[in-house]
Amino acid sequence: MRASARSWARAFQCSLRAALRSTVGPRRLTAPKPKAKTRTKAKAKAGPKTRPLPQRTPIAAGQGHWLPGLALGAGTARRYRVYRPTGAALQHGLPLLVMLHGCGQDAQALADSTRMNALARRQGFVVLYPEQDRLANPQGCWNWFDTSSGRAQAEAASILAAIDQACLLHGADRQRVAVAGLSAGASMAVLLATRYPDRFCAVAMHSGVPAGTAHSTLTALGAMRGRRPTAALAATAPGVAALPPLLVLQGLADTVVAPANAQAAVRVWADAGAAHALLRRFVQRGQRYPVAITDYRTGRRLCATLVEVAGLGHAWSGGAARQPFSDARGPDASRMIWAFVRQAMAA
């Protein structure tokens, strides 16, 4: 787990350095390096070394449909993958869960780690996995932090276009859409929910940074380390859509995203909804990591829930074993997220 956390941190830092170079300006020109000598015939025949393609877990026949897609927005295109359970083609009005990957991941990697498709098959909902373009971010990170330039908002709008297309093509109910994410995907998920609160019935943030904590590449690393304040969210005004219920999952052993971000996220969410914290409760099942759970309510309405997992690093809690950024020893985050979403849809 420590190796996974370090590799994730290195990937994000490389992305930030690349972005900083593009914002600071062109680098100083240097003299070209002399060309290397011609390779020997033996080396030329061998050719360049190539890395084997990573193994992908296919969707077995009869288990559902794993389909690619491309959504066109205002001057942008967003690739995605969508999982639709078998028989869903004959159904309409299915719930839709949007899953946003973290740095160094794609749709397939997040699906393999979280096993959300298997849960969707059993429970009967559609799962949408938007993918970040490597031209937009070399490490595959969502640019959740770049609000000053408007890039974060543009990416959020393109994800919304993918949601609209998934609802249109795959029979999902526009009134029952929830969004969840891991790390950079978690930060993008809460940005989506704050910008379009009327479009989501619930939002889940797993190991992310709350909206309003960073606004540029220069402030993103400080925000991840818990060294920046989180801006307050506007209180819900009469006639304006309230923020959807928020579920925050955070590992207390996370060295990539400071646990203070989870506490800040629920605090500003609760303040915006005039919610109060209830008594903290502790749960442990079998040999899995123990968790502390705190609910924030306004009367009988659930505003936010904070789940703090002792011993969990920067990884999907309860994810598939031997997958990057996944820890099978944690409580099952996928089941917790779907239970939270289903409760919000029924409210």
DSSP strand count: 13
Q: Can you summarize the main beta sheet?
A: 11 strands, mixed
Number of domains: 1
Basic shape: globular
- Rounded to an integer in angstroms, the radius of gyration calculated over CA atoms is 21 Å
CATH architecture verdict: 3-Layer(aba) Sandwich
Poorly predicted tracts of residues = 1-5, 15-61
Would you tell me the overall average pLDDT? 84
- The ordered string of helix (H) and strand (E) elements is HHEEEHHEHEHEHEHEEEEEEH
The percentage helix is 25-40%
The SS-based structural class is alpha/beta
CATH topology: Rossmann fold
The CATH class is Alpha Beta
Which superfamily, in CATH terms, is the homologous superfamily?
Alpha/Beta hydrolase fold, catalytic domain
Strand-residue proportion: 15-25%
* Terminal-residue CA separation: 37 Å
The number of helical runs is 9
Topology of helices and strands:
Layout: H1 2-24, H2 41-46, E1 65-72, E2 77-84, E3 94-100, H3 107-114, H4 116-123, E4 126-130, H5 151-170, E5 172-182, H6 184-195, E6 202-206, H7 217-224, E7 246-251, H8 260-272, E8 276-277, E9 281-283, E10 291-298, E11 301-309, E12 316-317, E13 326-327, H9 333-346
Parallel strand pairs: 3-4, 3-5, 5-6, 6-7, 7-11, 12-13
Antiparallel strand pairs: 1-2, 2-4, 8-10, 9-10, 10-11
